Amino acid sequence: MKKRYLYLLFALVSSPTLLLADDTLNSGDTAWMLVATAFVMLMTPAGLALFYGGMTRSKNVLNTMGMSLIAFAVGTLVWVIAGYSIAFGDGDFIGSGKFMLSGITDKSLSGTIPELLFVAFQGTFAAIAVAIASGSMIERVKFSTYTIFAALWILVVYAPITHWAWGGGSTLNFGEMDFAGGTVVHINAGVAGFVVAMMLGKRKDYGKAVIKPFSPVLTVLGAALLWFGWFGFNAGSEVAADGVAGNAFLVTNVAAALGVIGWLISEYLVYKKATLVGGASGAVAGLVAITPASGSTDVFGAIMIGLIGGIVGFFAVAKIKKLFQVDDSLDAFWVHGIVGIWGSIATAIFIAPYLKADDFSLATQMLAQLKAIGLTIIYSGVATAIVFFIASMLTGGGRVDEETESMGLDEMTHGEKAINL
After folding, report:
1. pTM value?
2. Which residues pair with 90 in a beta bridge?
3. Which candidate, 330, 293, 286, 269, places its Cα nearest to that of 139?
4. What is the pLDDT of residues 329-377, one digit of tens each?
5. Over the Cα atoms of the chain, what is R_g?
6. Over 60: is that where the pLDDT of 234 sits?
7. Is the pLDDT of residue 395 over 80?
8. Neighbouring C-beta atoms of residue 183, cutoff 10 Å
9. What's the mean pLDDT when you consider all of the chain?
10. Nearest to 287 by CA among 245, 224, 349
11. Among 340, 125, 339, which residue's Cα sits nearest to residue 237?
């Protein structure tokens, strides 16, 4: 009998989840979130940098990759100074009270993990959001302008939208479902990129010369790293090592795979070619589409969301983009913004049957999704325009001169080449 009690005591001590409540540190959750944070960090200065760098022209590769690098560096700084406080501090419209992480110690918890770890995890989201927007403005925006823009945009645009969706701000929360950032990250960043692209104007040879990517190889490699990091992005958004995180992990992988298939089938039907840049773009489209639904859909939903996401992404880039005549250099708005809208709508449609409440109403949830989409588009569009105008004023104009644009920003801005032969 004594041995049985000893075995029970040992089991309790050795299994943290048996002893811990929601307000107690869980070592399993903490270990997973450390890994997930590292996954998401890899997405910006490595995955996105390679993905975008491979698609730009050889004379602008380093500048393009540098924008992802500086986004992560500046984003990290402004996030810990004030961004986290605005997004997750106390308050209705915007948060406050955690400037410079005031009051947060190594003993502070966010659920079952250290709050400092939660700060780091959410900071990686802020950084990649503004880095995504850079894809719309490359090859003509000043590096100094973008750097200031990135800092201001995270504080003025990203952090408030995060507060409304995830941080406790109730006035502008319509009950939308956004598990990992469909509106907060992708629609927000896509709209921001589109607005800046309009303000900058077209590249001087846009539509007049064939603009070929520097290296599809780098783009595919970048997409693979983004795919890998997205497991932390989506499964990590559960902030726990549990069944929901496992489901998010699986449906993320399925949707990305179907995004590749959907894009390549569409591309082949239209152009009779299935390109690797298209396949890489399809993977990203599938990942974008599943992001808001990754905590609430099942495998069937992931198949449909990813497949349609790939198809929507292809036709947005290949057909719809031409109607707008806006020089969105690397299609950030079309792949992240438009596909993000599809993903947010699909979140309401493809909720796993076993997760639907008895009183679930598709019409009610769809209305909530549409309200959140509309708010994000309007606020991000207007606030981004203001922020970019300020950044441009501070740097003597946001666009590089004609000589720099012709010679390339790598040598003219950074004094370097992507390859020295």
Report:
1. 0.93
2. 96
3. 330
4. 999 999 999 999 999 999 999 999 999 988 899 999 999 999 999 999 9
5. 22
6. yes
7. yes
8. 29
9. 94
10. 224
11. 125
* Residue 207's pLDDT band (cuts 50, 70, 90): confident
The one-letter amino acid code at 142 reads K
Name every residue whose Cβ is closer than 8 Å to that of residue 1 and which is 6 or more positions away in sequence. Answer: none
Instruction: Give residue-wise pLDDT tens across range 5-26.
Output: 333 333 333 334 333 445 799 9
| Residue in 11, 132, 13 with CA at minimum distance from that of residue 71 | 132
Q: Please give the domain boundaries of the chain with CATH numbers for all domains.
A: 27-403 (1.10.3430.10)
Alpha-carbon distance of 55 to 234, in angstroms, equals 25
Q: Is the dihedral of CA 207, 209, 214, 218 positive or negative?
A: positive
For the cut 90, the answer to whether the pLDDT of residue 31 exceeds it is yes
Q: Are strands 113-114 and 109-110 parallel, antiparallel or unpaired?
A: antiparallel
Alpha-carbon distance 262 to 193, whole Å?
25
